[in-house]
């Protein structure tokens, strides 16, 4: 029987990936495990299994810090951001990928250059605009800046994918009587689903975890996202480490659920370079 051999490079690669996965999985397990302990036990035995789990931390998370409202605010803001980015980014990507016009390359250059501008450099003008438009401390005060901030990334990702769609498919749609809008909705949107899914998950993650913008643009309690509530736990309940672990665990849950549902589209959007017939 022929013995199967593995190159040294492959072994090292799998060893590194295995070690990296252990650190990531164990960190998540450590947080969830400590969420079922009281604060004193977390401080004294943080690496011990919670063999006698308690649920008081989860009760306090919803009663004392109103994490349910933070959930709702985050989902409203992040969900709205994703929808707006996919709508405007998808239309812009469609135009840039399927039309040839003067200034097209200049637009791409501007888009790439805008990725180099740090977010904190635009805080002051953006905040002044929000105050002028009376959007500060509202849902729109976080939705619109995050939409503008993530739009460039979405346009570049979607334009690169949509440009791989065969020209013959577009010509056949014209022969069947499709206009540009119908073609985008019924042809380009379904075919570009992997790219749209990839862009949506990244935009959702970035907007969901955007503590910097939340600290500046939305300070009122009724519109605070969940990441802003987490930053206040250390000051309000600095000694309750069990509550902190619980809040972090609850923050990660929606991200994991969304990723599990659309992970196959993310893989396709990141790896496929052409449309297969």
UniProtKB/TrEMBL annotation:
One of its GO terms (cellular component) is plasma membrane. It comes from Paenibacillus agaridevorans. Belongs to the binding-protein-dependent transport system permease family. The chain crosses the membrane at residues 12-32, 71-94, 106-127, 139-162, 183-208, 241-262. Its main location: membrane. Pfam families: BPD_transp_1. It is a multi-pass membrane protein. This is ABC transporter permease. Keywords: Cell membrane, Membrane, Transmembrane, Transmembrane helix, Transport. It comes from the Bacteria. It is found in: Cell membrane. Residues 71-262 form the ABC transmembrane type-1 domain. One of its GO terms (biological process) is transmembrane transport. PROSITE patterns: ABC_TM1. The keyword Cell membrane applies.
